[in-house]
């Protein structure tokens, strides 16, 4: 197993190099650069050229790539053209806010959706199943923009029990537990919006995967042996039914950091989503590269984790 | 999605929104159009929410998207400039009319040849680290702008200084054009006369030399202190929570009258929920889109006053004069006559905007009413097109030499403004026999096609202007090159001369005359189909007294004198 993991980690290196080349060149295909959108007659065309030269934007793309890659090897991801700050610093400022809310939403999502999915599968076509099928449909189709606004209207404007937006109360100097409570209060609404979206999908996924397993011969055999229904479902069926779900969860790792643009911007949660969009609009290549490389690394690690957990839950799979 | 739209719009308007000082000490008299500002008073000032009433010593102001570049020579968004203006002060500032008035400098002299500016500083101004502000700090600030590694957008403030090139490109240790005469006197010498210099170059906040100390070429050091701004302004910077808020406390040693409000917080808000934030009392002041539905929502809260004032900018359709069809002046005039601009403005702004007839703000001293208004007149448009040789055929469209009159219009996605403009333009111009084909694209792509490649027939955008009305940055011949701001290639020899002459004198009356003549030429030549001049609105809670917005004055100008009160019923 250790050998397998080491090998996979080593394989990541050429993959990442390839990914970085592809992303770098695709970004360059978009028209314009960091200075195109800055339409300020106070910055003359000559000054723009000077700035392009300073940022190295006037060089051929391959040279720019090597310059960037050379920096990365020394741990320097360059300076964000929007923020005039090192890329790592900018990402570090925003990404953990995204991470914490996404992680909580994921945990909450798993805790809610897997049990519901399993029960729905065992009681297929029951009222319980029907209710949650409708719920899932509503959850998937409800635009998070609309749902978010609705929650703000009800809880923050009409009932005045939760804040409209932000992550902490303005000007608060709280620390410790009261700080945590303040953040929790601000997080509640965006968390609900984020979780609703993930619960619906994950629940349906668990349900269908369980249904498939329940129809298998070995489940019938287990029942025929006279095992209790509980043991049949929760010991034999569940373990097999969850394998595909685990794969999905592995892919979730990059999503934890990628930010939910709409939810974050409605609730003004200071996450990475809006920063990313601004970077695209402003052609902030160093920042975009930094973010995309991070996602590439997380995706690869997510895959690896999924494969390893696969082997753990399913002894038939042997990793070599 | 909406947020993205706001982003694009602000990009479209990202021009010279920032600071800018003044007109000129000659004074051209107050502009009458400042009257266009109006205040909708709060109906029930006492209906203040408990949250706001409990916050006795703290004022919370909404802003949109701070980037954390809290430095006078680097801030590039309006939001960052609010932070900078609370903490720093410049040599000059401006009054309601946009005329320069002294701040750190108590007075200034201009040499006979109009090239040397000498500033006499107020004595006893202390930075919040206790040091006194002297001419050395002013020298330091402006030398930093000349730094070879400087990559911000304020270079235009120094690139005409004597010795700029030697310092920026060469080995010079100092910029010879900046001379410290004594602790309280400093002079700046330019290589050529620059009429807008006072209004545009001498308002940047002064940085303390020992606090910001950096050696030539080591600008990184300045960037490291973005989040620790320290100046001599009315407020001390306390803390910045990225993407959330910036906190300030009053400067107990402020030289120009200590502020009355103890704490100020700038809190990030979004146009999607800023009215809710105001109504709930979470925020005391915020900028809200001037639209009837927003005003109605704010009025129903009762305790919110609304201050409206004309925007210092305009929206336009740019035409490519190198295009075979559009190079004929009559055609361009016909396009303006044939467009129901009033109809568009009424649909888009419902009364909170005016038709733009001149590419300067109505609030500027250079504005004149005495120009062709191009009232909507399809007959006149048809007549002009006939004269230009474009004749209608049976399909209702005009043809010349067998070619149909088609205009490809490049515009940007995701904007309500554009969404409402497209059908009106299409329909109006179809009525005069012109087929308009809109092409929507992402904003940066549009900029590339229009400015960097100049491959377009027609596009639309908007400009935000600085206080000085000099139009040469947008319309001079020099700007017609690739990457310049005159991509349509409009060059009028006489207009060119007028713009150049107006830059060579610092006499405002003389400049006013020249610009008004220039406006007539512009209006007759129609390089742009000018569209609208909209209004800005700030909503202010009844507990805030002493802040009144106008085109050249934002809250940072008045914050030191503002107060928080317990509002009483009327």
Task: Explain what this protein looks like in three dimensions.
The complex is a heterodimer of chains A (320) and B (570). Chain A is an all-alpha fold. Helices cover 75% and strands 0% of the residues of chain A. In chain A, α1 (2-29) packs antiparallel against α13 (285-313), α4 packs antiparallel against α5 (127-141) and α7 (176-214) packs across α9 (229-241). The model of chain A has no long low-confidence stretch (mean pLDDT 87). Chain B is α+β, with helices and mostly antiparallel strands and 570 residues long. Chain B is globular. Chain B is 29% helix and 21% strand. In chain B, α12 (341-349) packs antiparallel against α14 (416-431) and α17 (493-503) runs antiparallel to α18 (508-525). In chain B, strands 1, 12, 13, 14, 15, 19, 20, 21 and 22 form a 9-stranded mixed β-sheet that branches. In chain B, 53% of the residues are buried. Mean pLDDT of chain B is 88; it is low at 1-35. Chain B contains 19 helices and 24 strands. Chains A and B meet through α2, α4, α6, α11 and α12 of A and α1, β11, α9 and α15 of B.
